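Q: what does this look like with nitromethyldethia coenzyme A bound?
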Amino acid sequence: GSGLKAKLAKKIPIEREKFLGIKCLHGKKIIGQISVNSVIGGMRGLPLLFCETSSLDKNKGIYYRGKLLKDVCAKLPRVQEGTQEGTPEGCFFLLTSGSMPTKKEAQEVTNEWLKRGSVPRYCLRMIDSMDKRVHPMAQLCAASACLNPQSQFVEAYTKGARRADYWKYSYEDSMNLIAMLPTVAAAIYSNVFRDGEGSREVNYEEDWSGNFCRMLGLPEKDFVDLMRLYMILHADHESGNVSAHACHLVGTALSDPFLSFSASMCGLAGPLHGLANQEVLVWLTKLRKAIGDDPSDEELKKFIDDTLKGGQVIPGYGHAVLRDTDPRFVLQNEFAMKHCKDDPGVKLVTRLWKIIPEVLKKLNKVANPYPNVDAHSGVLLQHYCLKELKFYTVLFGVSRALGVLSQLIWSRALGAPIERPKSFSSIEICKFINEA
Ligand code: NMX
Ligand code: MLT
């Protein structure tokens, strides 16, 4: 909240100095090499991007501001009475400011988001006018882009704001957007799956997750705790993943945070990225239909093989950077073991964790045969009666806002220039090789 903005106002000038120092003293140092494979292979592994909020270790997983995710989960202050999890509000404070919030600081962010949470009528009308066939993710992209008239950044830029102040307006837009997202997402949910039923009013007694769950019609205490955990786990994964990179890229053109976030969500909506959480449930549902809830190992292996033979990937497995089981998968499994270990879906996902890697390893091409974050989330949501698979990526998106928008605030704070790499045609690559 205002405490967070004051903290940033103090920290940003210091970080700018540091940044400028690095640029002046070390700007010309070489930290990586570019091969032809880098150019044609999705830039895999290239140290190309800047990210202050988080960093990914290929074996240990994501660190938020230098803290291992499981420690972040353990240490975030528990704000609401009786909750077992920290709040996404506290997580946003950590990602943005760089320090673990006190209970009071996390509560201040909650209060700010409650104050800023009401969605303009025209935006709700636009959501209400959507055909139900439009995928909830496409609706989220449209809704966040259509909030752009709210942008304080656009207004300030138009009036000639100083570059050094851009972050302040990006901060305001980001706070407003995050505050509105639960209502936007719940409105999409109620239109597509509940014939428009459900509340769109913010209740000041609840936190951000409590409000979201109530608007979805799922106010059960354990589900709210799952949602708090889910929102913390999916928030940030450094800046090279598709959703974070899309937000950053679009933001460097000085498109406002609403448009940048919308671009981010267009990327998250792809099956190799965030949509994988929907795909996992589609796949598990087919599996259970074909071989039942308690199949033998042999039946499972055959089903996995058949998927691969059909030319499809096993959704929820593999990763571009990670080379071990995703700690976000493990943290969800720990939650499941505590709250619903006998759920048939949870049991199946836990068994597959041992079996799928063995099958993928035999292909001799999969760089990481272990589960990622998306392999687990769906069965937990199913357990708590959030059954509509097409909505799952929207939950990921609401959470991802915390990471990509805190990155965006820092991009404006540090004056990130427009991103514009050089590209090569195949003729140019061959020419380059011949001349080398
Ligand atoms: N099932 C089958 N084959 C796979 C899988 C998988 N889960 N993962 C990778 N491969 C294949 C991949 O298709 C490629 O084959 P080919 O050479 O024939 O094109 C080969 O293994 C090498 O790919 P990798 O270098 O291991 O993976 P890459 O870094 O290119 O891609 C993913 C990473 C995440 C896109 C890939 O592992 C995948 O498609 N996984 C399934 C989808 C998924 O779970 N995505 C969610 C990621 C997390 N998130 O939320 O964003
Ligand atoms: C993410 O959370 O963004 C995914 O794990 C994908 C990635 O990091 O590339």
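The first strand starts at residue 54 and ends at 57. Residues 276-383 form a domain with the Cytochrome p450-Terp; domain 2 fold (CATH 1.10.230.10).
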